Amino acid sequence: MTRWNGSELTPLNDIYGQEIAKKILRNSFNSGRLASTYLFYGDDGLGKWAMAVALAALINCEKPVTDESGAAVDACGKCLNCHQILNLSFPEMSFAVPIPPHRSESDAASLILEYLEEKRKEPYKIITSTRQLTIPISVAREIKRKTAIKPPEGTKRVILFHQMEKMLAASADSLLKLIEEPPPETIIILTARDPENLLPTIQSRSQKIAFRSIAAP
Ligand SMILES: [Zn+2]
Predict the structure, then answer these.
(1) What predicted TM-score, i.e. pTM, was given to this entire model?
(2) To the nearest whole percent, how much of the chain has pLDDT over 70?
(3) How far is the CA of 99 from the centre of ligand 1 (A)?
(4) Domain spanning 2-210, CATH architecture
(5) pLDDT tens across 145-192, in order?
(6) What is the pLDDT of residue 32?
(7) Based on C-alpha coordinates, what's the Rg of the chain?
(8) Is-contact 111 100, C-beta < 8 A?
(9) Is residue 123 classed exposed, middle or buried when 0-12, 13-18 and 19+ CB atoms within 10 A define those classes?
(10) Distance between CA atoms of 163 and 48, rounded to whole angstroms?
């Protein structure tokens, strides 16, 4: 383990503000009480995506950085798992993101890759389009299918559903089944601007974590 000196740009530490959210996630991780489903909510651009990626890194890091008491405070940002997670190429991290209308499954796959590429370069980027963006049902189904296979030993699977308000009702049904019977060794992270817009069943089965606006100086 690497001792933390408080100033390194490790994944969680690199996120601007949101100290309460970081503290909740660190404490849950250290006490072995991570929820199976989280709902990160708050305005766009506050770091919900970055926090989801940083949490995935923390729980899969090979050498987390620790404080004096030995508690893990952050992922190292350097090991193979961290590297792949931060690069959005970790095989056990799946992303359901809103994409524009598409003609085929392969079309959808390349639109998702484009989205991930944008987020890889700039995790805080708010991706918008003049066309209607939705999280396609095929993506939700594919993710559900993947979870039937256990992740490799010592690995936790992380599934990120980003911008839940863009999810079609049919996809939400498929997600609901996933949340109701959480697959082993899997953490589901949902992000949304306002939890009130989501199905009550989804809200009640998630641990909600608020992202606060950063006050102007
Ligand atoms: Zn690491």
Answers:
(1) 0.92
(2) 95
(3) 30
(4) 3-Layer(aba) Sandwich (3.40)
(5) 888 889 999 999 999 999 998 887 777 787 888 888 888 899 999 999
(6) 95
(7) 17
(8) yes
(9) buried
(10) 10
Q: If you measure from the C-alpha of residue 57 to the centroid of ligand 1, how many angstroms do you get, rounded to a whole number?
A: 7
Residues with CB under 5 A from ligand 1 (ion): 61, 75-76, 79, 82
- Residue 37's contacts (CB-CB under 8 Å, 6 or more residues apart) are 179, 182, 187, 188, 189, 190, 205, 206, 207
Beta strands in the chain (DSSP E): 2-3, 37-41, 65-66, 72-74, 93-96, 157-161, 186-192, 207-210
CA of residue 123 to ligand 1 center, whole Å:
18
Between CA 82 and CA 93 the distance in angstroms is 12
Fill in the amino acid letter for 178. Answer: L
CB of 65 closer than 8 Å to CB of 8: yes
